[in-house]
Write a structure and sequence with these properties.
One of its GO terms (molecular function) is oxidoreductase activity. This protein has 336 residues and is of the alpha/beta class. 39% of the residues lie in helices and 14% in strands.
C-alpha cells in the first residue's frame, strides 16, 4: 500500500480507505463483529491505515464496533467520523451543522470509539440552514480543544466549500483538508466543479461508492450473478447502468482482473487527490478490492471506459472549452 498526504495537510494516509458503513447488522445486511475483525485485520495487514465511519452508520453500531476492534492499536490508524445526521428524530436540534449538534455528536462519537480524539472530523453534508461561519468556528474550537486534529466536509456544493475555506484563511481557523464525495464511472458529476475546486484548494478527495452501489462489481454482468442484492435488481438498473457495467466487465476480462478492481482503479487514477473508500461485508470482498491498488489501467482501457459513460461537463465547462479558440486565437495555450 502506498501513502500520500491528505490534501495540503501533513497527514499520511493509505491510497485506499476502509469504509466501515457495513460494520454492524443493524438496519439491514451488514457484517457481524467477528467478520468486522477479520476485515480490519486484513486491511491493516495490507498496509491500510485510514478508517471512515459516521455517527449514524448502523445506528451507531459501526462506531461501537470500531471502538472495540481498535482497542490497543488506536494510534496505528487515522480514524475519521462524521456528524450532521440526526441523533434523535424527535429533537430538532439533534441534527444539522450547528454548534449544539456538533458538540453533542462529537462527544457521542468519542465515547463509542473509546478514544479522546478523532483524526479527521467530517461535516457529513451541507444542511442549508446553519451559517458556514458558525460551523467553521465550532469546528476550530474542537480542534483547539484537542478533540479533533483535522476537519473535512462531505456532500456539499463547491461554492460552500470554497467560502468555508476562505473564511478559515481570513480568521485563522482550521480549514477543511478533505472533501468526501461519491465518484464512479456511473457518477462523474464531481468532475464539473468539485474535483477542480479540490485540486485548486489542496483538498484530499475521499471518494465513496466507487462501485456505484455494487453495480460495477460484476454481480449483474457475470454468469450466474444474483438477480437482486436486496436493494437493486437487474431490472431496476437503467440501460446506461448495464452498458457501462458490461464495458467494465469486458475490460476486466481483457486485463485478467475483476470488475471491482477495474472500477476502483479507474476512480483512483483520475487525480492524485483521490483516495477511494472501499467497503465490504465479507473479507473476501475486501481482499478483491484491495488488489485494485496494484492495477494500472492502460490508456486504451481508460478511454474505452470513459467513452461508455457518455459523460459531458455541461455548462460552463464545455462552453469555455469550445469557445477558447475563438477567445484566444493563435495565443491559445496547450493545457498539458
Amino acid at each position: 500500500m502506498r501513502y500520500r498526504t491528505l490534501g495540503a495537510s501533513g497527514l499520511r494516509v493509505s491510497e485506499l480507505i476502509l469504509g466501515a458503513m457495513t460494520f454492524g447488522e443493524q438496519g439491514g445486511v451488514g457484517a457481524p463483529l467477528p467478520e468486522c475483525r477479520r476485515i480490519l485485520d486484513l486491511y491493516a495487514e495490507a498496509g491500510g491505515n485510514m478508517i471512515d465511519t459516521a455517527i449514524n452508520y448502523r445506528d451507531g453500531a459501526s462506531e461501537q464496533i470500531l471502538g472495540e476492534l481498535l482497542e490497543g492499536r488506536r494510534e496505528s490508524f487515522v480514524l475519521s467520523t462524521k456528524y450532521t445526521v440526526s441523533r434523535d428524530r424527535a429533537d430538532p436540534n439533534a441534527a444539522g451543522n450547528h454548534r449544539k449538534n456538533l458538540r453533542a455528536s462529537l462527544e457521542t462519537s468519542l465515547r463509542r470509539l473509546r478514544t479522546d480524539y478523532v483524526d479527521v472530523y467530517w461535516v457529513h453534508m451541507w444542511d442549508r440552514d446553519t451559517p458556514i461561519e458558525e460551523t467553521m468556528r465550532a469546528l476550530d474550537d474542537a480542534v483547539r480543544a484537542g478533540k479533533v486534529l483535522y476537519v473535512g466536509i462531505s456532500d456539499a456544493p463547491a461554492w460552500i466549500v470554497s467560502r468555508a475555506n476562505t473564511l478559515a484563511q481570513w480568521h485563522g481557523w482550521s480549514p477543511f483538508i478533505g472533501l468526501q464525495v461519491p465518484y464512479s464511472l456511473l457518477q462523474r458529476d464531481i468532475e464539473r466543479e468539485l474535483l477542480p475546486m479540490a485540486e485548486s484548494l489542496g483538498l484530499g478527495v475521499t471518494a465513496w461508492s466507487p462501485l456505484a452501489g455494487g453495480v460495477l462489481s460484476g454481480k449483474y454482468t457475470r454468469p450466474g450473478g444474483p438477480a437482486t442484492d436486496g436493494r437493486l435488481t437487474a431490472e431496476s438498473l437503467s440501460a446506461r447502468d448495464h452498458a457501462v457495467a458490461r464495458v467494465v466487465q469486458d475490460v476486466a476480462d481483457d486485463l485478467g482482473a475483476t470488475p471491482s478492481q477495474v472500477a476502483i482503479a479507474w476512480t483512483a487514477s483520475r487525480s492524485r487527490a483521490i483516495h477511494p473508500i472501499i467497503g465490504a461485508r465479507r473479507v473476501e470482498q475486501l481482499r478483491d478490492n484491495l488488489a485494485a491498488a496494484d492495477l494500472t489501467l492502460p490508456p486504451e482501457s481508460v478511454a474505452r471506459l470513459e467513452q461508455a459513460t457518455g459523460f459531458t461537463l455541461g455548462f460552463p465547462g464545455d462552453f469555455i472549452a469550445q469557445t477558447s479558440p475563438w477567445v484566444f486565437g493563435a495565443a491559445l495555450a496547450d493545457p498539458s
